[in-house]
Amino acid sequence: MKIALAGAPRCGRSTLFKALGGSPKVDSGKPLTVKVPDPRLDFLAEHWKPGNVVYASVSFTDIPSPAFGSRSMAMLRESAAVALVLDNHATGNLRDDLASAEEEMMLADYAILEKRRDRLRKESRAGSMEFELVNRALEFLERETPLRTAGFNRQETDILSPYSPASLKPLMVISNRAGDGVSDESQVRRMSEAAGAAFLTIDAALELELCELPEEERPEFLAGMGYDDSGLSRIIRAAYSLLDLVSFLTMGPDEVRAWPIPRGSTALEAAGVIHSDLARGFIRAQVIPFELFRETPDEAALRKKGVVGLEGKEYPVRDGDILEIRFSV
Fold first, then answer.
1. By CB count within 10 A, which of 13, 53, 245, 286 is most buried?
2. What is the pLDDT of residues 149-172, one digit of tens each?
């Protein structure tokens, strides 16, 4: 699933994209796939020492400026979420930049949904559920309310999704700053939260410099700058959360792996993500919460304690569940 990295000219968007790619030579014209840091997978890899370790990943697309022109908007609509980079290293017009971006997305959404409403009228479908929903979405936009805050349920979101409204997509607002930044961020943070968006801060130029250091030297460098973790790690984890994904884990001597699934997925759906045969022949899912395995990294001992679960098809998989699917085909 792609996340569109957007922003005004000179906001630091492309610098951030290159930092995410780990090199100033990254081609910003191509989608960039990055792994999601996961200490749980690190632990399992250290325990099993497998031949293969597979992290969950997210993809970023660098949306060229102007971010809300017709070509760029088409690219943005192909993405599952939007990461909006604001300039707090030079101009600091955070509030205006966020408000302008939201307005551009809502105007574009209004144009598309208004056309759809007109089409439904012509097709004599003015009384349909879709017509009522499109009409309701247009009313929100007329009130300058982003659709992500409208409270649509999953069925309603699925009906609107073919039109890919930009203001319905999950939004992450990133203040790109050097040091403390040019402007205070408290107001734009409140604006972001009110608009249903996540808010983060980063120094994109520093993160790109950090990529040039040997990996083993980076923690000491970050500690010297007063940071516990890199800004890139925070953004990647936030992006994963923004997509409303969780990870279940599989483990063994050959491979340990994090599998991304939508929050609320069932054990049967998780089995299908691994392989369709596992879903077709599903019997039970063995479930070990990661925290229990970290405390006692011995399956036999955990079985003796009675904490290893055997769950059916409808079991809601939780983030960090270690699964083993039992099946027969």
1. 13
2. 999 998 999 999 999 999 999 999
